[in-house]
Specification:
It is found in: Cell envelope. Its main location: other. This is Iron complex transport system substrate-binding protein. Helices cover 42% and strands 16% of the residues. The protein is of the alpha/beta class and 339 residues long. It folds into 2 domains: 122 residues, Nitrogenase molybdenum iron protein domain (Rossmann fold); 138 residues, Rossmann fold (3-Layer(aba) Sandwich), CATH 3.40.50. The protein has a 5-stranded parallel beta sheet. A 5-stranded mixed beta sheet has the order 11-10-9-12-13. A 3-stranded antiparallel beta sheet has the order 1-2-3. The longest helix is centred in the middle third of the chain and has 26 residues. It is elongated and about 65 Å long.
């Protein structure tokens, strides 16, 4: 009996020892903040993993979205942005996306170098799922109004956060910053732009004072006058302080006019934006405008106070911070040259 009891006791002790060893080898979970779940990753020697694999295997957090609570990487490395303004908003926060939707064939000048390896997916009612999958994202950001119908397919590729529709880009920037944990960066982006706007407004006022300015967009089939109530016009007139015409309708955001009506809005200075300066039809329309007596008799044309701007660099004006910053420098340089 004593021998049997001793053997039995030894077996029990061995099993307890092995069990304790097994428990000590298990990873321990530790919380890193409210709504955030941390997970340890087991190291595997001589095995290389992609950024996406490292991110998804590392820390994660739970965010509240248009589709409820979603678990995403705490520090995503490969982000896809499904909106033509998201590339700018992401880069303003220090994130270079791996793939984005784009309106123009090429990125604007201020994104070409940092986005040299970013995949351009074009724009369509339905995103290119194959290109998104090939980009191997660990997070997809998309506006709910545009992408809710595609949510199921997108979320099969990677965690997908649908963001709410907003009236102004600062709200969109803050939404994205909240997802990425970059709230302080968003505040700095807005503060820096506000300072840049102030400097630009002061410089422009020193150049032309209270002389009037009209902002005209030449499109393929129409001429549009942008007033102070439109995001683009508001940037020119309210943010940069350029004086609008007194007879521009106070309640209108913009006016679509014919060439014959343009003399009714005869400003001291004309900012002319070709909606797409690579479009041959728009170029032709503008050249036809230049040849008319109506155009030649405009006050701004006679005084050589005409500023030709536009293209893809002005496309997101009033809708994203990098475009706004670019336009400030562009317009100040244009006015300095002729005043």
């Amino acid at each position: 009996m004593k021998l049997k009891y001793g053997v039995f006791t030894g077996v029990i002790l061995l099993l307890l020892f092995l069990s304790a060893c097994g428990q000590s080898a298990e990873p321990k979970a530790s919380g890193s903040g409210e709504g955030v779940t941390s997970q340890s990753t087991a190291a595997t020697s001589n095995t290389s993993t992609s950024d996406s694999e490292q991110s998804s295997a590392g820390q994660v957090k739970v965010v509240q979205t248009e589709m409820g609570e979603i678990t995403i990487p705490a520090s995503p490395k490969r982000v896809v942005g499904l909106s033509v303004v998201y590339p700018e908003l992401l880069y303003a926060l220090g994130v270079v996306p791996v793939a984005v939707q784009n309106y123009h064939e090429e990125f604007p000048k201020y994104l070409q170098e940092p986005f040299a390896s970013t995949v351009k997916m074009g724009i369509g009612k339905t995103p290119d799922f194959e290109m998104i999958l090939a980009a191997n994202p660990d997070l997809i950001l998309a506006p709910a109004w545009w992408s809710k119908k595609d949510y199921d397919q997108l979320s099969r590729i990677a965690p997908t956060v649908l963001l709410p529709e907003r009236e102004e880009w600062p709200e969109e920037l803050q939404d994205i910053a909240a997802v990425l944990g970059k709230e302080s960066e968003a505040k700095k982006v807005m503060a820096d732009l506000e300072q840049h706007e102030k400097q630009g407004a002061e410089k422009l006022h020193s150049l032309i004072g209270d002389e009037t300015v009209l902002y005209v967009r030449v499109m393929e089939k129409e001429i549009i006058l942008n007033g102070p109530n439109l995001s683009r016009g508001a940037f020119i007139h309210k943010r940069l302080g350029l004086k609008p015409l007194s007879n521009f309708p106070k309640d209108e955001a913009s006016l679509t006019i014919s060439m014959e009506v343009l003399p009714e809005y005869d400003a001291d200075h004309l900012i002319i934006q070709l909606d797409d300066n690579e479009n041959p039809q728009i170029k032709k329309k503008y050249e036809e405008m230049l040849s008319t007596s109506i155009w030649k008799n405009l006050k701004a044309v006679k005084e050589n106070h005409l500023y030709l701007v536009g293209g893809k660099e002005w496309f997101n004006l009033g809708m994203a911070p990098l475009a706004d910053n670019y336009v400030i420098d562009d317009i100040v340089a244009a006015f300095e040259e002729k005043n």
